[in-house]
Structures are given as C-alpha cells and as structure tokens.
Amino acid sequence: MHEIGHNIGLAHSGEGGSTYGDVTGIMGASFTDDGRMTFNGAKNGAQLSWYNDRRVTAPFNGDLYGISDYGTTGTSAKMNIKFTEGSKDYYVSFNKKSGINSDTREYGNQVLVHSRSPGSGYATSVLEAHLTAGGSYTVGSTSFTVGTIGNTAQINFGTASPAPAQSPTTECVDYPNWVDSYGDGCEWYEENDSQGCPTYGNYFDGGQGTPNEACCWCGGGNTGTPAPVTPAPITSAPIASPSAAPVVSPITSAPIASPSAAPVVSPTTSGCDDYGKRKCNRTDGCSWKRRQEICAEALPTSECESYDEKKRKCKNKGCKFDTTTKECTGRWD
Q1: I want to staple 113 with a disulfide (CB 3.0 to 4.6 A). Which of 71, 129, 146, 189 is the partner?
Q2: Residue 276: is its pLDDT beyond 80?
Q3: Rounded CA gap, 34 and 315, in Å?
Q4: What percent of the chain has pLDDT over 90?
Q5: Is residue 148 scored above 90 in pLDDT?
C-alpha cells in the first residue's frame, strides 16, 4: 500500500527529522503491508478528498472521530480539522486504533497534528505533535486543547477545556519475566529502539504480548500506585562540646571526565542497502539480516561459524544454517 500511495500522488510522512519517521499511517516506514492502517490527516485532508464531508476549518469545538467511524456516523461527525499558520497548512485528526486503523504503529488513540506545504500538490507531511487527554498545541496565533479521549476526542480551539482529573502518581513496571519471540527482554528494546518503540514495538510476540503491551519503554507494562514511603524517625544528633575546627587544606578533586558517547557506526553495506530481501539474497556479497530488516554485506564463514547450532542467531546475522549439520556458514563462501 505504501507504493500504491506513491502511485496516487502521495509523498512520504516524516517525523523528527526522518522523511519516513511518521509511522502512524501508511506513508511512513512500513515494514509490512499486512497491517490495517490508513493515510494520515494531511494526506486525507489535502489530497485524497475521501472524507471531505467530515473535514472542518478551525476554530472547532466538539468531538473528533476516528476514520474507522466513517461508515457508522453521519456528516456531523467530523474527522479532520484544518487551519493555516505562516507558510504551512495544519491538519488535526484522531488516530483511533480500531477497524481499518487498528494496526497503526504509534500514538494510537491520540490526537495528531500534521503539517505540509499549502495546497493539494505532492508534498511530504510532518507529524508535529501527538496529544493525550489534557494536552494542548499552539503554533502562531492558533491553539487548541484536548479534553477527554474515549470513543472520540474532545477538541477545543481558543477556549481551554477543563483538564481531566489527574490520577495519583503511578509507577510503570515491565511484565515480569517477559521475553519476545527471540528470547529478548524489554531491555533489548531500550537499547535498540527509541522511546515508544515505533520500529519494533508491534512485532515479535512470543506468546506473552508485544513489546508495546509488555514494556514500559514501549508504552506498555503495568502501572500501579507506589506504596507510601514511611519516613524514618528523626533522632536529634548529640551536641558536641565546641572545639576548634582543624584547618584542612582544600582537596582538589580530580576532574571527572564525562563519558564519551560511543560512536555510531553505520553498517558496511558495499551498495547492498538499496536491495529488498529477495534481490539482496541473490546478489553476490550481500545478505538479508532478519532482525534489522536490512540488506548488508554478507559475513564470512569465519564469523558465521560462531553461531553453529544457533539457528535463530545464525539467520539474524544473514548467514546460512544447515539444518542437517547444524553449521552456520557465510552465504557466499
């Protein structure tokens, strides 16, 4: 569907400096076409015109519906709010995680703000904000707040709505003993994905739920009110007889070096990175790395053989695994 989007005139959807970064909809970095996702508010509002009867121009005060509600509601159920500030058009939508949008890969059941260049031509959209209940957004002279979120999201332009009652401070705890289908725990996602886990969060369910359900870093986990801390009794310190304080020469602490961030090393690809999985594994010197879902330079047998009898790790590294001998070898050796 991502490529079909290009064919009907849609550009990519970006976020955080990445042209493909917005994976709330189809025109971001999609690793699969099997999921149920839609095009974002900017694509629908500016170009597709599929929901023009549900679009409204700000200011708007009322309930904002998700696209999956289109077939069960009338034209009074608005799904897209447009306003213009400076040299950009903005579109506000409710990313309701249900029906045809039940597999959205990030910020489900939140209010999204997208921007793009004015008009209806080919243009990259940018995810500017994602808001939960009580959140607000301001750009230029335009501002709005989000009230309660349930089956719809309550939107108020210009006048602030009462913020929902705040729950007591809660602490998030990962699912106990949770591992994914590869045997990795939540700590793997903290090291290899950004907060919210937009890249891997909806995948690798090993029978205990996805990372988005089980790991706090990915937006899941269990929350509960922490037990109150009972302060220790205060004991008065004994009063010592005054005495002359010893003269202590000042101690100069050795400077503490700030830890240097480990350099980010891009994988050596030798031109392999332009290939999809099928062409990758058929191109001399390249191999498809399953875990990272990238095409990279194939490892030699001297490196692959350390994964003998380890089928999953062998294939994740792009090596070949012989199910008879249990040996892991380089793809092109």
Answers
A1: 129
A2: no
A3: 23
A4: 23
A5: yes
pLDDT at 89: 92
Q: What is the DSSP string of 139-181?
A: ETTEEEEEEEESSSEEEEESSPPPPPPPPPP-EEEPPTT---T
Q: Residue 248 pLDDT more than 50?
A: no
* Residues 6+ positions from 102 with CB-CB distance below 8 Å: 36, 68
DSSP states of 253-278 as a string? PPPPPPPPPPPPPPPP-TTGGG--HH
CA distance linking residue 99 with residue 222, whole number of Å: 26
State the pTM of this model: 0.49
Sequence spans of domains, the chain: 2-157, 171-224, 275-329
C-alpha–C-alpha distance, residues 115 and 123, integer Å: 10
CA-to-CA distance for 294 and 313, rounded, in angstroms?
Answer: 15
Q: Report the C-alpha gap between 253 and 317 in whole angstroms.
A: 46
Are the CB atoms for 85 and 143 separated by under 8 Å?
A: no
CA distance 153 to 138: 18
The dihedral through the CA atoms of 172, 178, 182, 185 has a sign that is positive
Q: Say if residue 59 is preceded by a cis peptide, omega within 30 of 0.
A: yes
Cα–Cα dist 108/48, whole Å: 22
Express the helix, strand and coil content of the chain in percent, nearest 5 each: 20, 20, 60
Question: How far is Cα 83 from Cα 290, in angstroms, rounded to an integer?
Answer: 43
pLDDT band at residue 168 under the 50/70/90 scheme: low
Give the pLDDT confidence score for residue 90 in this predicted structure.
95
Q: Give the span between the Cα atoms of 208 and 281, in whole angstroms.
A: 32
**pLDDT classification of 63: cutoffs 50, 70, 90:** very high
